[in-house]
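@channel sequence for tomorrow's demo:
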Amino acid sequence: MKSSLIRLPIALLFVVPVFVAQGAVWMLARRWGKLPVALLSMFIACVLGWAAYALYTRWVERRSASEFGRTGGIKELATGVLIGAALFGASVGVLALFGHYRITGTRELSAVIVPLCLALGAGTIEEILMRGVLFRLLEESLGTWIALAISAAVFGLLHLANPGATMLAAAAIAFEAGILLGAAYVLTRRLWLAIGIHAAWNFTQSGVFGVPVSGVALTGFFVSETSGPAWLSGGAFGIEASVIAFVVCTAAGAALLVLAQRRGKFIAPHWRRNGAAPVHVSAA
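structure tokens (generated this afternoon):
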């Protein structure tokens, strides 16, 4: 197998165009309407994203995309959904206890469709790109800890392009999401758990509780409002930029890392392997 650091830019050439297209399609929203574009965006992310990743692993790594293996996939995805929803529910619950989150009304159930499509699309393509490509290939060469630090930092910095983003928000994303989602991949060596957590967090935040996701305001089932200082409520960026979500999600990520380490899922950097091949990485 070619060096993972050589394969990294090749893998990015397969996946990044899908990532860009999934976001760029929203320029058609005014002409087509939000729902058709949301469905198209989800299709691009989930179907074309998977296809691009599968083609890369087949043509370059000469193997099947085991990160999307079907055996146990539904269980891991469902577990991720429960974890993601529970983590955001806990975060918004604590904020409500402090009196800084309040529900003021409800909308029709159909209001959740667009946020659901967006959550599924973002959760899928971002996990393929960040954990399936960036983290996995860095880890093969640099080991788990260094790959986790780099991929988490990149994930946080990418969010600086979002509306209302600050360095504090980017740092929060890097720790709470970068560590949590990276740990989900390390624990399972597949993408289902990470996708479930990511998609469920986004959907619960926007589609259920009506809170902006990374600065993007969407209409969810509940009409709500947040208040208080940005460090506590997350401000215009959303609750994911709050100290509450930082503590809740970083703690969950640390717990998954401890579990993964106990199960022997960590990989040492190549200079500490004494010529041995990395374990727990799909080989050609």
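heads up for whoever presents: The radius of gyration is 19 Å.
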